[in-house]
Amino acid sequence: MKHPSWRCQDCGERLYEHIEGDYQCLNCGRRYDPDQLEENAT
Ligand SMILES: [Zn+2]
Prior knowledge:
Layout: E1 15-17, E2 23-25, E3 31-32, H1 34-40
Antiparallel strand pairs: 1-2, 2-3
């Protein structure tokens, strides 16, 4: 499941789906757990 609207909480860049199943900001390198992101989405 893709979530193209997810943004980095640090710099606001788009998050890209990582091969390991989590999401990563390519701008600052921060990684996000999908479960964590879903909780924050409103
Ligand atoms: Zn970022």
